[in-house]
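note to self: dont lose this again. the chain is below, predicted strucutre after it. 116 aa total, dont forget to put it in the shared folder this time
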Amino acid sequence: MSYLTNFNNESAKQILMDIIRCVNQPENSKKLSEAKASAGKEMILMMQHVFPLVMQLQLEVIKGHGFPGNREGLVQFSQLIREMERDDMEIARLRSQIRAIYLPPIAINTTNDILI
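---
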């Protein structure tokens, strides 16, 4: 847990930028493009094919910054980031950039929606 003593907004931004760089490396980008192509616009397929790849890349990056390289480490990192993004717009922007990889924007037409 010593990695938490030095964890602050700046280190959070650095880790998020490292995740984005890792995702954009040619071999990772190619894998993600192939996974997205096989998923098409189906959200369930995106979660089955793309989401696990992004999570694996995030695990590799956070492990390099001292977090446990397992599910618990990723959950802990994600919770810390969610707390920090409330007060830091740059952290929120970086997190949104990562989420956009596996959660495509959803168009919602609110003018035609009727609550029943």
